[in-house]
Amino acid sequence: MAGGGFTTGSSDVIFEAKITPAVIVSCIMAAFGGLMFGYDIGISGGVTSMPSFLKEFFPQIYEWIQAPKNESNYCKYDNQMLQLFTSSLYIAALVASMIASPVTRKLGRKLTMLLAGIFFIAGTALSALAGTLSLIILGRIILGCGVGFANQAVPVFLSEIAPTRIRGALNIMFQLNITIGIFIANLVNWFTSKMEGGYGWRISLAGAIIPAVMLTVGSLIVDDTPNSLIERGFEEKGKAVLRKIRGVENIEPEFEDILRASKVANEVKSPFKDLVKSHNLPPLIIAICMQVFQQFTGINAIMFYAPVLFNTLGFHNDASLYSSVITGGVNVLCTLVSVYFVDKVGRRVLLLEACVQMFVSQVVIGVVLGMKVTDHSDSLSKGYAMLVVVMVCTFVASFAWSWGPLGWLIPSETFPLETRSAGQSVTVFTNMLFTFLIAQAFLSMLCHLKFGIFLFFSAWVFVMGVFTVFFIPETKNIPIEDMAEKVWKQHWFWKRFMH
């Protein structure tokens, strides 16, 4: 067997596959969508803590920082428009994801990624050159359209093009690039914050042009997935691409499997209506819950506002940016842990271990802040400050090898072909909705809940752990078109939906 194979399908046939250069190049190029998304996540927090940016667009906050009033340290950045600068991207992505679903199905994964790249380039240019707050927010909205299209197409592209035995690892390339994007954004913010002349924030925002161009060029180079080509009627081309990416001659069993799935898919004229049918409810419920839980870990609250958060905790501006660079580096390294282990130990082990680690770290952070940071005492001792940074890194590490990548992987691999595009659209929509809510509310929540915000998120992590134990099945090494037979019909709870 060339390159290893897998037993799959009801007839236990073997799908032969090598790890070919075509697969590697395709996955690297597609994952630049994650790099762009991550850069946008990481860049906003650093920019919103830069005095030059605040002075130009948020003079009230700038004046407060320069001459603090007798107000709570937890509330110094509580400004709805400042939060809208960050969150506008996600509300736009939410809307765009619903438009991207029929585009992905009818025009293919490749073209959808190309459209995402074009949106990214246009949004980056407008954000970096904007002279008014309304224009800079418009730029963020255009970037959000790119995020909606990229997050719709890229995870599905990666799941469909990857050989079964490394599907988890290759799909996590998307999340790995998100973490790399965040890390690069933190580094860029650290350097540009030191620039004189007050234009450092513009360079930070303009830096997104590099991954935007990479995604655009990459989408022109790669082939569309065999699943998408066959579903759209290009059977011979799909077969040729399948042979190319598998690197073997005997691709008939897998081709027939995809062909059967595509015939079922083409009988479904309204995928969104089909999503709510009984047999599609298990992957739909899992996808929605995983996106809600992913955001209510509190990870994006930390990633969006890491410099602002560390400033609030008493770190000086340079120290806060430096600390966010550390957390960004931890995020990248620990996502690599997931790449290595996800197809070895499985999805559930990583999810459950992370719940324990995230719960403990957030409780410790909440307790330390509750004891040591008051409304008008804006500094921590060196020892406690280091403890907070260590616990934040511990939290980020556990998220990075679990709910971060698996929140995208599991939904992308569990929907049947006929509802895969619609299911991914609902996944992205839910993720962006709750990302928007957290981004828009976090600074206000920090103002009102104070240290209790970390206890609030830890309570959600506990709920996530219980849900994982009972309702999230293991999908390791299950062929993507066989999830119904080998996962949902075998699960103690979900099998009741599988008529």
From TrEMBL:
UniProt entry tagged with the keyword Chaperone = no
Major site of localization recorded for this protein: membrane
Subcellular location(s): the record lists: Membrane
Q: Which CDD domains match?
A: MFS_STP
Q: Where are the transmembrane segments?
A: 19-39, 81-99, 111-131, 137-158, 170-191, 203-222, 284-308, 320-342, 349-371, 383-404, 425-445, 451-472
Q: Which residues form the Major facilitator superfamily (MFS) profile domain?
A: 26-476
Q: Which UniProt keywords apply?
A: Membrane, Sugar transport, Symport, Transmembrane, Transmembrane helix, Transport
Q: Give the top-rank taxon of the lineage listed in the UniProt record for this protein.
A: Eukaryota
NCBIfam families in the record: SP
Q: Which family does it belong to?
A: Belongs to the major facilitator superfamily. Sugar transporter (TC 2.A.1.1) family.
Q: What is the official name of this protein in its record?
A: Putative major facilitator, sugar transporter, major facilitator superfamily
Which lineage ranks, top first, belong to the organism behind this chain?
A: Eukaryota, Viridiplantae, Streptophyta, Embryophyta, Tracheophyta
